[in-house]
Amino acid sequence: MTSTATTPVTDLLIALAQRLKTVLRDEDTLSRIGGDEFVAVIVNLDQPQTCEPILERLLQAAAGPVIVDDLVLGVSASVGVTFYPQDNSDAERLLRHADQAMYQAKQMGRNRYHLFDVAQDVAVTVRNESLARIRRALDESELVLYYQPKVNMKMGKFIGVETLIRWQHPERGLLLPATFLPSIEGHPISVELDEWVINAAMTQIRTWHSAGLEIPVSVNIGARQLQQRAFVARLADLLASHPKVDPANLELEILESSALEDMLSVVEVMNACIALGVSFALDDFGTGYSSLTYLRRLPAKCLKIDRSFVLEMLDDPDDLAIVQGVIGLATAFRRQVIAEGAETVAHGTQLLAQGCVLAQGFGIARPMPASEVLDWVVKWRPDAAWTA
Ligand code: C2E
Ligand code: CA
Ligand code: CA
To answer: 181 in ligand 1 pocket by Cβ < 6 Å?
Structure first.
């Protein structure tokens, strides 16, 4: 703290401090904690709202003109507030929270106060902690890929696998994507995760290739990736680092709904990726309301019928109508069509009756670790009803 008592700035601070004191009560405390920052500790409030008139008066007191050395100076204040014990933190954190609230007040304009939001702070902290934990999972190889076979039911032929990410959590066990992907959505770490998946999938393609099997692999790509041109360069780098992997064995699954969000740039990025040799499938098809014009322009080789329709089609004629509709669209636009969620033999039989021969689902195989795929491929036989 400086002690040159006679500069205009110091005079201004003194004048302000005196004025601020006049609006506080005797039991309250005011102190300057450095620079132009003051802290007021306001005690004995029956409820938080009781302090609002005091805050208004503090703002007014700070905003009035101050005369220093014949100069009329005008300043404005921004006030950040947190309430103890609602914000159940120690003194240091209470100050930090008030400080955060003050910065928010500043951003909203001059002469304002802002109340620290405890619930929001908890939410942000939780999100940061889970991001940090997922970051560690990536760094410490706790993420693993499972593979779910896709087949041609009619010909009884295995046609490839879809990669599905899992988190082998040291304490919580094997976690499904729904438990951790939502918390990284929209965060740069999701870009890194998708790259990790593509890289791991290509390594696996190569491993299977060395064992004598050519297995096409589909990977799921997060919603925002395809809206960024940078994705093309990253995909090119990944392909270049696996020169022995045929890009034709890599299919990217993107959500129909995310493809529609920013059609023009998505189509551009898709075409650039296709030029690198990979292909696309539109995932969860039927949930995104593609118009026919859109579908015509999206360069996806394959439509994946969303599993919700497939699962329900045996009981609900509307779901069956949607399944039929998607199959019809695929035929009309000369796209492949595959059904997800073929949970039982009956689902497969109905799909075949509708003219959809490609499927994946628990009725064929559950997602499995890479080490089990070869065995499964050797042993799998289609249901007799399908090939009849
Ligand atoms: P999705 O792409 O629609 O994947 C299919 C999901 O359906 C998988 O759930 C799969 O286990 C499940 N499934 C397969 N067959 C059946 C069936 O017969 N019945 C039922 N009820 N479910 C079946 P999972 O593995 O929990 O994945 C959920 C979602 O997480 C995926 O949905 C995908 O959107 C996302 N996801 C998975 N892996 C990745 C990844 O590596 N990267 C990204 N960005 N997203 C991923
Ligand atoms: Ca998928
Ligand atoms: Ca899907």
So the answer is: yes
**CB of 343 closer than 6 angstroms to any ligand 1 atom:** yes
Where do the domains of the chain lie?
A: 8-116, 133-387
Architecture of domain 8-116: 2-Layer Sandwich (3.30)
Mutate which of 314, 340, 344, 347 for ligand 1 pocket (most atoms within 8 A of beta carbon): 340
Ligand nearest to the CA of 345: 1
Phi then psi for residue 278, to 5 deg, are -90, 170
In CATH, 133-387 is 3.20.20.450: yes
Model confidence, pTM: 0.79
Per-residue pLDDT tens over the stretch 87-132:
999 999 999 999 999 999 999 888 999 999 988 888 888 888 889 9
Using alpha carbons, select from 350, 351, 348 the residue that is nearest to residue 365: 348
Residue nearest (by alpha carbon) to ligand 1 atom 23: 341
325 vs 388: which has the higher pLDDT: 325
The ligand whose atoms approach the alpha carbon of 311 most closely is: 1
Bridge partners for 122 per DSSP? none
Task: Write the CB contacts of 126 (distance below 8 Å, at least 6 apart in sequence).
Answer: none
**Does residue 56 have its Cβ closer than 6 Å to ligand 1?**
no
Which whole number is the average pLDDT over 164-170? 97
Distance CA 284, CA 58 (A): 56
Q: Give CA–CA dist 33/302, Å, rounded.
A: 64
What's the 42 CA to ligand 2 centre distance in angstroms? 56
- How many alpha carbons fall within 13 Å on the CB side of residue 154? 10
What's the N-to-C CA distance of the chain in angstroms? 90
259-278 burial: b if 16+ Cβ within 10 Å, else e: bbeeeeebbebbeebbeeeb
Q: What is the mean pLDDT of residues 181-203?
A: 93
- Cα angle vertex 149, ends 238, 239, to 5°? 10
Instruction: Tell me if 183 sits within 8 A of 130, measured CB to CB.
Output: yes
Mean per-residue pLDDT over the chain, rounded = 92
C-beta of residue 251 within 8 angstroms of C-beta of residue 216: yes
